[in-house]
Amino acid sequence: MTETKPATEVWITGIGLATSLGEGLDAHWDALNQHRINVDEKGFAPCVVHPLAPLNLDTQIPKKGDQRQMEAWQRIGTYAAGLALESAGVKGNAEILSRMDMVVAAGGGERDLAVDSNVLSLEAKGNSAPGFLNERLMSDLRPTLFLAQLSNLLAGNIAIVHGVTGSSRTFMGEEAAGVDATRIALARIAAGQSDIALIGGSQNGERKDLLVLYEFGGFNLKKKFAPVWARGESGGFALGSGGAFLVIESKAHAEARGAKPFARLVNVVADMARRKQAGDVRSTLEKLWAKLGKVGDKAAIITGATGAEPATSEEIAFLKAHPGLPVRATGTVLGHTMEAQFPLGLALAALSLSRGSLFPPDGKSALEVEMSQGPSQIVVIGTGHWRGEGMALVESVK
Amino acid sequence: MTATRDKFGRPIVVVTGMGVVTSLGAGKTDNWKKLTAGESGIRTITRFPTDGLKTTMAGTIDFIPVEPFSSTLLAERLGGLAAEEAIAQARIGTKGDFPGPLFLAVAPVEVEWPQRQELGRAIGSSTEINYDAMLRVSGGGRYTAYHRRFLFGSVADQLAETFGTKGSPISLSTACASGATAIQLGVEAIRRGEADATLCVATDGSVNPEGLVRFSLLSALSTHNDPPQAAARPFSKNRDGFVMAEGAGALVLESLEAATARGAKILGVVTGCGELADSFHRTRSSPDGKPIIGCVRNALADAGVTSEQIDYINAHGTGTPENDKMEYLGISSVFGERAQQIPVSSNKSMVGHTLSAAGAVEAIFSLLTLEHQRIPPTINYEVPDPAIPFDVVPNKARDARVTTVMSNSFGFGGQNASLVLTREPV
């Protein structure tokens, strides 16, 4: 078999960011350069979270009815997707949107905490008749809550609010979903199966039901914030609220419509180490690095390292084996956005390349050194807190 | 060489292994026998109390023990069974070493009521029970297994480990079109030359109290509880909703070239896939039918066939008033007068709606239709709906010459996906 991939160049032409640091590219660039971090140690104590900065939802989700039909994770994602379309200059362009592909990395939506708490409280008081749970759920659950919880309804809402309808695919599976959404969208464009795609994900990190899930595994950062590199032996991640979306398209498609690139998306590679032995994550990252493409000396690394152990320690070992490349950690500045981790890293990489400089280091870790010259390449790393490893190579377009 | 490529120059994608589990039973043989005998797998729910519920029947799978029960564990078991059957038939790779990636259609995973109730008991009755209290008792390693179990990627993780699939396994949801999307992703990977073989699995075990309540609150479910076998009535005038069901389907897809080279038996061809999203409403199709029409046309175009070549449609056919009406509108817009002549049957009349699994389960039944040249019926068809003049193959299976099948899947969130399946490359 002689399979040679057509050399279709793929550009990142739109970036949408809505996070704990605000919304839009300028707000993020300024905050990152001013070392601002928005962290809440009290609201979800003992867990530390990065709360969403206030958004003016009406600007991207004009109908109140649409806003009401969504839970926070969907509103954040739909908002960030709108920003990405706007940034790419395709917002409202029905011709392009009707053939734009969409791959969304999604978790699921918020539970109704009051309903759950009430059921459990009543059960604790002896309400154990058969059908008690059924009756409570039938009468207490908001009929449309299910739609705000369904994973594929983030994509569904983006289709409804922004009109992206070429295709709609939702990938699940925590961090890996974000890597694979990007990987598949890129592969389809590179192979001529698609011209333009919207990819991304979002998370509402200010959710006690989600904190419970991660507390089962002992993953929540407690009490005091620290950079991901300095979270001690037990480690932990601070969930971050936020959405990150990108518009990627073939260079030819972008040029035909006069769109300017933020950066070139060269390659995305992914794997899933079984993580049965110490060193599995590190050796998988090495393999991905070897497959990624040529990384020159004007390169930097933006990682979504979560702070969770042992994954982050293994990633540190990997990074130390590749000295000389300045590292930045999105987990420190924006928290762990789970499914959005990788799109968020890509967004900051493309933003940095387009602004001709890397944002400053956290000032504490030996990995995060100053970068005096602008990077020409950025490697984005997404290591899952429990499973999944991914890497992307992003380059500046001269 | 040319014979292994389709008319667009892409590698031809064939099916070399299939596995299926539904409320009718485990395995292709049992399912096909019952499906063509017009048997229903729908029964009264005994898994949990149904007091207070409007719908008390479903296509549950109770013949596979899952203890303690969780929908996610059941989905994993069903997916595993189907994959095992598919891989055994394909005789590909070695045990635990499948030579390609996994694409898994799976319902969104979440912590379920038994676990939540366990936390409630751990908190005790002396303090108020809320999520702060739940958070306090969740840590310390007592429930580590629940973290692994209720991650969205957990089912794919387990299946990838069991079958030794390669690379990062993809878990996907396009609601009730998920099964078709899993196949589509596999087809695309082979066409890109990324893989010679893919394992496409779709599974659903969602019949639990909240699962049922959710669809019930959206008025999507049939309430024809008695007798349960007669509840699912696709295309009938007296249809009143779908019937939730569990099941799994798995397909081994390969490039024709790779399959031929290793001497594999070819069961059918995935000739084309189409999709198109609907931006009209979260649960309803656009009234003009355009997204369904576009999806069907995309599938025909991708397959390089015309509507005249389709000689059987395996319908989405859920039995909700809305779906069946819209499906007729979509099909008749594309197929014109032929829409009333082509046999169009709904497997869901017998196995219920297997949700995330449906697209794959029905693709397998479509391939079995091609293999046996026999079309499974739409049962419970007693009162025709004059607004839907399909030939629904009412109540009895029919022998027919079938060369090209279209299988449709539509889902909440504006999801539409269609597959074109053939016996031979076209």
- Total of DSSP H or I helical runs spanning 4+ residues of chain A: 15
The number of distinct β-strands of chain A equals: 13
Q: Quick one: how many beta strands of chain B?
A: 15
Global geometry of chain A: globular
Major sheet attributes of chain A: 11 strands, mixed
What gyration radius of chain B follows from the Cα positions, in whole Å? 21 Å
**Main sheet attributes: strand count, strand direction, barrel closure of chain B:** 11 strands, mixed
The low-confidence parts of chain B are none
Q: SSE order of chain B in H/E notation?
A: EEHEEHEHHHHEHEHEHEHEHEHHEEEE
Biggest contact: A-B, 83 and 86 residues
Overall structural class of chain B, as computed from helix and strand content, comes to alpha/beta
**CATH 4th-level superfamily of the largest domain in chain A:** Thiolase/Chalcone synthase
Helix content of chain A: 25-40%
For the CA atoms, what is the radius of gyration of chain A? 21 Å
Which regions of chain A are unreliable across 5 or more consecutive residues at pLDDT < 50? none
Spell out the helices and strands of chain A N to C: EEHEHHHEHHHHEHEHEEHEHEHEHHEE
Which fold name is given in CATH as the topology of the largest domain in chain A?
Peroxisomal Thiolase, Chain A, domain 1
Mean pLDDT of chain B: 97
